[in-house]
Amino acid sequence: MLLAVDVGNTNIAFGVLKGEKIVASFRMMSQTAHTSDEYGNNIIAMLRNNGINREEIEGIIVSSVVPNIMHALVNSMVKYLGKQPYIVGPGIKTGIKIMTKNPGEVGPDLVVGAVAAYEIYGGPAIVIDFGTATTYVFINENGDFKAGVVSPGIRISAKALWQDTAKLPEIEIKKPDSIMAQETISSMQAGLVYGQIGQAKYIINEMKRESGLKDIKVVATGGLGILISDECEEIDIYDPNLLIQGLRIIYEKNKKTKPKNEEFEGGE
Length: 268
Description:
36% of the residues lie in helices and 22% in strands. It is α/β, with parallel strands linked by helices. It folds into two domains: 2-90 and 249-254, 2-Layer Sandwich (Nucleotidyltransferase, domain 5), CATH 3.30.420; 103-242, Nucleotidyltransferase, domain 5 (2-Layer Sandwich), CATH 3.30.420.40.
């Protein structure tokens, strides 16, 4: 089995795959620092809760946008699972070319999403990840990573509303019954949700216009992606497991080579 790990700014998502099938998934917060022993024990416990023994994990691949936890996380995998993980980054085979001005600045999560969308759904494609940040990636028919857009995610926008204003409360993020809101909570919900829907529609259409291509597959993922995708006809597919499958695809491209012994800053 393969353990695929997507370290985001809010959560660490773990997926256990047997071939192409995800047989277990679980999460832990990435904003709370842990020692390698804490990570290791948590991973072992969550695997066990899903009926998986550590000895069944044959390989590990990690994509991370949170560098300061990587030292402890990688050490935990080596110590508790006995495996050196592949780390998505320079030197790893992905099958796509990054054609931006500064390829080294492109986040590994964007690369993983682009790989998955191209390999599973084909190109050209626009890949949207509704995560802590909302990201839009354009890949052409050859699988080349051509452009990207990064905007505040819906949770960041919500947090700014209730933290930076004196009277607005913390609310549940959901679509209200009507955009014609008549009280504070539904007014905030309408602004957050419909604002994100409007942003998605505009950016998708502008990417299509500037690329000169109309027949582009639009694939969305991310925690709140289903909320936006259901209301945005420009989005063709919502795939909640896109990044986990992208990690699997990259692992398959690299498993015949030995993973590098990465050095990361940070303590245990």
